[in-house]
Design brief:
It is a single chain. This protein is of the alpha+beta class and 221 residues long. The chain has a single domain, classed as Glutaredoxin (3-Layer(aba) Sandwich), CATH 3.40.30. It is built from five helices and eleven strands; from the N terminus they run αβββαβαβαββββββα. The protein has helices at 13-27, 83-99, 121-127, 143-153, 202-218; strands at residues 39-46, 53-55, 70-76, 107-113, 136-140, 157-161, 167-171, 175-178, 184-188, 191-192, 198-199. The chain has a seven-stranded mixed beta sheet. Helix 2 packs across helix 5 (202-218). The termini are far apart.
Length: 221
């Protein structure tokens, strides 16, 4: 009678993957969860591609000029009848509330025009101080710069002109928060009212901004 022979056990690939994953989960350091904001975190924060923007008060804006401060960027066009001026008013109210805080006031406010054909630097200079003296108006000097900047942030906009010369502009409604490394850290979204109207609540903006800054400060981002 032949002796019994042990047959080696070979784990299926799926089991091996699960075992390895469990081992890595046990030994890996815990990653702190992100606090909730009305919008989306970008983790890790995303670097911006090369671009060159003009601004109505100051030198040109490039990815190299952004580090050092935090930046909150809105977008639209100066001929906008309602959404854009409402957003700028709400951002100004948020900034005044922030200035009363004792920390994280190193924030710059910017308005990027998606209609550079009509929004010259002079037009931005006349328009923005009505809302807040610290607003900086940005515009792309070329289509290539506009495409690079808008694609990097996720700006959705279109400008069309009919046969009569009437210009139609459509665009989304979000705010972009750039950290002091010049990277896109978060995208803030508006509140929708019961009637379907979108707008930014200054108190909510303040809460979300401070949430991001405190988390980033505690985790040395």
């Amino acid at each position: 009678m032949q002796g019994a022979r042990l047959i080696p056990f070979i784990a299926p690939p799926v089991i091996l993957i699960l075992l390895v994953g469990f081992a890595l989960w046990v030994i890996a350091p815990a990653v702190p969860s992100l606090p909730a904001i009305q919008g989306a975190w970008l983790m890790p924060a995303q670097p911006l591609p090369a671009f060159r923007l003009e601004q109505h008060k100051g030198p040109v804006v490039t990815p190299n000029t952004l580090p050092g401060d935090w930046h909150l960027i809105s977008y639209g066009f100066t001929h906008c009848p309602d959404i854009c001026p409402t957003t700028l008013v709400e951002m100004a109210q948020f900034k005044r509330a922030l200035d009363q805080q004792s920390q994280f006031t190193d924030l710059r406010l910017h308005f990027y025009t998606v209609d550079p054909g009509r929004d010259s630097l002079a037009q931005l200079a006349d328009y923005l101080p009505w809302f807040h003296e610290q607003f900086s108006g940005w515009r792309a000097a070329s289509g290539q710069d506009a495409e690079a900047f808008e694609s990097a942030l996720g700006i959705h906009a279109s400008v069309t002109q009919d046969e009569q010369g009437s210009v139609q502009v459509t665009h989304g409604l979000t705010l972009f928060l750039i950290n002091n490394d010049g990277r896109l850290q978060a995208v803030l979204e508006p509140t929708r009212t019961l009637t379907g109207r979108l707008h930014f609540e200054p108190d909510r903006l303040l809460q979300d901004y401070l949430t991001v800054r405190r988390w980033a400060n505690n985790h040395q981002l």
